[in-house]
Amino acid sequence: MSLMPFAPSRPLSIGVELELQLLSCNDYNLASSAPDVLRRVEKRAHPGEIKPEMTRSMIEINTSVQQEYTGLVEELRALRDVVSEAGRFLNVAVAGGGTHPFQHWSEQKIFDAPRFHHLSELYGYLAKQFTIFGQHVHIGCPGPDEALHLMHMLSRYIPHFIALSASSPFVQGHDTGFASARLNSVFSFPLSGRAPFVLRWDEFERFFGKMTGTGVVESMKDFYWDIRPKPEFGTIEVRVCDTPLTVEIAAAIACYIQAMSRYIMVEQRTPPEEDDYLVYTFNRFQACRFGLEGVFIDPRTHEQRSIREDITDMLARIADHARELHAVEAMEHVRDILRAGNGTSWLRQSYAREHNLADVMQLQAELWMGKQVMNWKFF
């Protein structure tokens, strides 16, 4: 009898969670409006789930289980529209992006729920500093050992996911110089980083048993790893992405991860190795700091290239898998990001033109709510 049973799920099914910013339409600072927005959306039929997050100026939308890009993006648009309509009624705008550019953590209010109060007491000011906004992608796995295999094989490509989704250059009124400053806040948590290198589920269960025995963790939710297994869903969960600026980009990145997962499951027979993690922290930092221009070191060959070049190579390798998954349109969105730039590029270009972060946030909200289309020729 398994101590932590791994639920059955359809292999390569996908689910997406997006943490979203709630903004006052007066000054485009964060607004503590989550309770009002959630009460409003309860009255509307909608797919998936809409839930509170750590502080009252953020909410989370979760899709149902999807199989391909078309269904995923349609559901994300439906969730976006429900949340945006609730916001309009309350004079609240909704936006993507990994950080708010000028909010101050000390002004944030913890959402009134037992788990969030517990985390606030445990982590102190870090809980309010966790007013950051990420995309989590779930990939269905055929079994627990296969989930661990996929988790470790995908870990070497974490820089891809960070660089493609990066949309958090500004913190407390300043350009940090990072493409994804959001992840610096995640790294502050003691149980962040990478999962332990175990390849069998019974070994993972023993590790989990030891950790719960110490009293440090109570559930898988207490691990803030870059990728973690979610046995109750039968998935692995990729957690490093900033919330992109549009739902279309969010869906495209999820399907890029899905196609890469199929490539790993079908073609890559070489097992993961502990030494794959020798360059893990370096590669991840490069992606956070420099985005697509960051240096990527292949852990097996030690070859160095830009993250942009490594993604380009990966797109060629997974092209057949993307076609099988009906994700060709999603891969075109990924190519658009490589050509025109990620969300951080858009935000910096917008600020260079507007010279005002509140005006940038207004544009960012209009972009996410579908009031304007991302212009790839903007750069």
Radius of gyration: 20 Å
Helix content: 40-55%
User: What fraction of residues sit in β-strands?
Assistant: 15-25%
Q: Can you count the helices?
A: 15
Contiguous runs where pLDDT drops below 50 for at least 5 residues = none
Number of strands: 13
What overall form do the CA principal axes indicate?
globular
Write down the secondary-structure element order.
EHEEHEHHEHHEEHEHEEEHHEEHHHHH
Please outline the major beta sheet.
Answer: 7 strands, antiparallel
The secondary-structure class comes to alpha+beta
Explain this structure.
Helix content is 44%, strand content 15%. The chain is an alpha+beta fold. Strands 1, 2, 3, 4, 5, 10 and 11 form a 7-stranded antiparallel β-sheet that branches. The longest helix is centred in the first third of the chain and has 21 residues, at 69-89. The chain is globular and about 55 Å long.
Summarize it:
With 379 residues, this protein is of the alpha+beta class. Helix content is 44%, strand content 15%. Strand 2 and strand 3 (58-62) form a beta hairpin.
Write the layout of secondary structure elements.
Elements: E1 14-24, H1 34-41, E2 49-52, E3 58-62, H2 69-89, E4 92-95, H3 114-123, H4 125-129, E5 134-140, H5 144-155, H6 158-165, E6 170-171, E7 174-175, H7 182-186, E8 192-193, H8 201-214, E9 224-225, E10 227-230, E11 235-242, H9 247-266, H10 280-290, E12 295-297, E13 304-306, H11 307-317, H12 319-324, H13 328-340, H14 343-354, H15 357-368
Parallel strand pairs: 8-9
Antiparallel strand pairs: 1-3, 1-4, 1-5, 2-3, 5-11, 6-7, 10-11, 12-13
Helix pairs in contact: 1-2, 2-9, 5-9, 6-10, 9-13, 14-15
